[in-house]
Amino acid sequence: MYRRQIPAALAGAAIVACLTVPSFADAQSLRGSRSTLERAYERASDNGLHFYRTSGGVRSAAEKGRFVRLGGNADYRLNNVSYPYATATTRTFVERLGAQYRATCGEPMVVTSAVRPLAKQPRNSSDWSVHPTGIAVDLRKPTGSCLAWLRRTLLSLEDRGVIDGTEERRPPHFHVVVFPAAYDAYVASLGGKSIAANPAPRTSAAAPRVALATVARMPSRSMRKYRVRRGDSLWSIAKRYDTTVDTIRKLNPSVARKILPGQTLVIATQ
Questions:
Q1: pTM of this prediction?
Q2: What digits encode the pLDDT tens for the residues 75-122?
Q3: In the 3-class helix/strand/coil scheme, how is the chain assigned residue by residue?
């Protein structure tokens, strides 16, 4: 298995994966941008996901339960998908969106790409692509009222911080990245089944992700992001927000003893 090296532009930046919300400008356009690509890459890296290099690696991951098969149903179908696998959370996204799409448009939604190993990436693909991790899918671009509905729906999910969507034109399709922990929490909040049991590929180091169980035990508190400044310490941040160093560490498992300027932390505030 292969874990892709984070580009130098991201070195030293620890981005909290689960609670980061896209900027308003990005979330209102579906145009995509470098920051959109970087955000998706950071989420995948921070969640400890592997960037699978070969077809064999993808098949092995599927055999081990790290990917599930996109089999299609009455609500969605696959078209020329070479590797019909994705994470369990991404399949849930496809199934839920597909059901809504068919109810609106009267026909199945079409998936044109799912996991795609690094060795099989097209020449025009971005170095930041997360297709090799299984959290991205491509959807055929419909026309008319179905197109308007799909745009509105993807924008709404972007605004909730659970996906990133980009409307591509060559060829015309929607590229959607599903943020695992955030979408899982969103589905659970709607009364749907949690996907947390889906095993995420592990690296040699613990994946730096927010502890959702810790968040759940804080019903009277809200979450906010804090960007570490020069001179900060965990103690000074905890004092500022009336919390404890232990709580900050539980919410940010990636935090080492020494924090660095530029790191982003999740803080539970009153």
A1: 0.62
A2: 999 999 999 999 999 999 999 999 999 999 999 999 999 999 988 887
A3: CCCCCCCHHHCCCCCCCCCCCCCHHHHCCCCCCHHHHHHHHHHHHHCCCCCCCCHHHHHHHHHCCCCEECCCCCCEEECCCCCCEECHHHHHHHHHHHHHHHHHHCCCEEEEECCCCHHHCCCCCCCCCCHHHCCEEEEECCCHHHHHHHHHHHHHHHHCCCEEEEEEECCEEEEEEECHHHHHHHHHHCCCCCCCCCCCCCCCCCCCCCCHHHHHCCCCCEEEEEECCCCCCHHHHHHHCCCCHHHHHHHCCCCCCCCCCCCEEEEEEC
